[in-house]
Amino acid sequence: MLKIENISKTFNAGTINEKKALCGISLDLKSGDFVTVIGGNGAGKSTMLNAIAGTWPVDSGRIEIDGTVVTAMPEHKRASFIGRVFQDPMTGSAPGMQIVENLALAYRRGKPRTLRWGVTAKEKALFKERLKDFNLGLEDRMSAKVGLLSGGQRQALTLLMATIQEPKLLLLDEHTAALDPKTAKTVLDLSEKIITKYSLTALMVTHNMRDAIAHGNRLIMMNSGKIIYDVSGEEKRNLTVDTLIKKFSDVSGEEFSTDSALLS
Amino acid sequence: MTSVVAYFASLNIATLPGRLPGGVAQGLIWGLMALGVFITFRLLNIADLTVDGSFTTGGAVTVVLILAGCPAWAALLAALVAGLAAGFCTGLLHAKLGIPPILAGILTQFALYSINLRIMSGAANQSVNPDRFDLLLTSRNTTHAIMIGIFFAAVIIAILYWYFGTEQGSSLRATGNNPAMSSAQGINIGNMKILGLGLSNALVALAGGMMAQFQGFADVNMGRGAIVIGLAAVIIGEVLYNIFFKKRGNFAISTAFIILGGIVYYLVVVIVLWLKLPPNDLKLFTALIVAIFLAVPYLQSQSKSSFGRLKKLERKSAKKGGADDA
Q1: Nearest Cβ partner of B178 from A76, A80, A95?
Q2: Superfamily of segment(s) A1-73+200-264
Q3: Among A14, B145, B225, B283, which residue's CB has the most CB atoms within a 10 Å radius?
Q4: Complex ipTM value
Q5: How many domains does the structure of chain B reveal?
């Protein structure tokens, strides 16, 4: 479903702030794969997701989604393949527009924006039904401005927006990191539920090793812009936090200096 | 004391009502222009300074075409297209060439000064005599001009209401509201900004064409300060809207209030002039009003939450503590 071949990205090349963010990453995701991504700060996790989403062009390499080469496609064109939820709950939805308007915009992802009415009665019914599944009471506030929602509600809404038009690929970029533990769990459970229900192909970046082990069928660990560990199947199911930490120091030759952050 | 008495004696209340209809008509036209400013300032979140130039462009195109024998309505249509082109220029400078939107607007506005002079064959102004040409509206018949103004306002509000409810209009609003999200949802935000700036300036130029017909001439300086007047109308309209509807109305009502904002602004101008305040100070006066209204929401939030407020509280409790000691 997703095929990344040898992509690299260097920020501020040729200056003292030069940062090699991605150093020749390759990754192959089968349809229905749910991959969790872990790694320390600056490992390149979010950068990899941004490269896939097309936030900026990569320096070299090739990205293919569902058989289409998207390497040279700008972000808004790639959007037809990709659903995204960001770390910052404010990023994923338009605060000055209604819940129903936000969903209608997302529902038209990858389609031309015509002069037809922006949201139909049929869509409203569909949105209401899908919001009901979330059990957050949002289905009764469909015409409320999104700016009035809490961070957790906005993140849940963004998750629905990302998946209301079934994406080829779902990118979750530490989407629970800015939430309180209880809300984070709610949003994470919702994500798991949706990914399983629609058998979506997904990449989820997380700082939390337990979450990374508990969710998905494959786990990759990144360090200094490289994938240093890639595990799936039986081996992934038998992982523990301790073996992960040991694995990290074995493979990278460094101590896991940010243990506490990763375990939080 | 005698000078004060003499000043009030010199004001003739009988002349005021006669001036009001003209004020309402001009206010309607400025209100239409303010709808254009509303699209960029409120929906796209861009303060677009192109309008000072495109308002004049609209006036110049209209007058020149009417003088050339073109029907007034067709001349207005041409003004609309000219404004659209001006807005596209600003949009391209911003979205395709990476120039910050304020600067892009200033550049287009600056360039339009020369273009407007060229449109008027190098003359700083061109007049069109309502006796010799069939104009849509003129200051000689203010009642008729007001009717035309209301008609245009109603039609344009209806069109805007429809457009901003469509898929495309919603995408345009989303672009101004949250560009990152819009891009992630597959909206080409660059193109949306170009489109929005075009539509905005098309409206502004249309208003310029109406103003030129109303006053009977186009002048190369007629658009100077249009952005400030537009902002004044938008802000006054919003304040009135919040008073009457407490944000519970809809898009059509809120845009109608912008037209009302234009009328209120221009009636204040009429009264200021009637009070014989020096007309040269009018721009200073307008700028002050806009600055105050723009500052009010900020100051309101500051009174609820700011370091200044904490400092005051600290001082108050210190005073109180001191009194207790004594």
Answers
A1: A95
A2: P-loop containing nucleotide triphosphate hydrolases (3.40.50.300)
A3: B145
A4: 0.90
A5: 1
